[in-house]
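User: hey, got a sec? need Mitochondrial import inner membrane translocase subunit TIM23 folded
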Amino acid sequence: MSPLSPYLNVDPRYLIQDTDEFILPTGANKTRGRFELAFFTIGGCCMTGAAFGALNGLRLGLKETHSMAWSKPRNVQILNMVTRQGALWANTLGSLALLYSAFGVIIEKTRGAEDDLNTVAAGTMTGMLYKCTGRLRR
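Assistant: Yep! Here you go:
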């Protein structure tokens, strides 16, 4: 029998495990579906849009206030441009991602298949819905 550990006061043989005994959630061996990936897509697009919008707002704010001296009004005007552009881009990209994900999930459930045709159809339908701001042309 091996000596007991003076630090743990347990037999070290109990600490060695030869098998993989992990608790996995049900269905963990399966790949994630389109619905589960929708949340990542929408959140990622919102954060990416906010970052690009903030950079664009900083560029526009510096360009618009280049003749002003560094002061509180100039700083406030630049911050206003950064937050306004960041929110605008985040909303735009987030709504596009929401449309794309919703169309993708609907098409997948309707067809009952996961393939590239769903992706192409979801992207096409998103573009068509996003760009049809008016009525049909004659």
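Quick note: The radius of gyration is 27 Å. Let me know if you need anything else on Mitochondrial import inner membrane translocase subunit TIM23.
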